[in-house]
Amino acid sequence: MSETWTFVCAAGELLPGELKTVFDEVTGTPILVLNHDGDLYALEDKCSHEDFELSSGHFDPADASIECVLHGARFDVRDGRALCAPAYSPVAKFPVRLELGGVWTRDDRD
Pfam family example for this protein (predicted)? Predict the structure, then answer.
């Protein structure tokens, strides 16, 4: 588990409907940070069906989902749960905080 928060971007650089990716500086985990209607969410940037980055997929702000381009698995950006086959397991969800005018996240898994 990383106790070190990773800087994502300035708070004004991640607008509703947009996403950014970073790597947790301690664990090396790729993290996808999404802005859904002004609320920020962070997920591991890896489809639970197959090891492929979710950030290359389509983020649909209307239904708060992201779709993996590889096989069409969709995930709820708010909690990481799988919404359809071929994915059945959720993707890891991480904390996000706004501090010092920036967006920060970290891999908080044990």
Answer: Rieske
pLDDT digits 0-9 by tens, 89-104: 999 999 999 999 999 9
- Secondary element (H or E) of residue 44: strand 39-44
- Written as six digits, the tokens of 104 are 């920060």
Q: Can you give the residue ranges of every domain in the chain?
A: 6-98
CA-based torsion, 9, 31, 84, 74: positive or negative = positive
- Among candidates 56, 80, 82, 84, which has minimal Cα distance to 70? 56
Look at residue 13 and give its three-state secondary structure.
helix
pLDDT in tens, 23-60: 998 999 999 999 999 999 999 999 999 999 999 999 99
Give the architecture (CATH level 2) of 6-98.
Answer: 3-layer Sandwich (2.102)
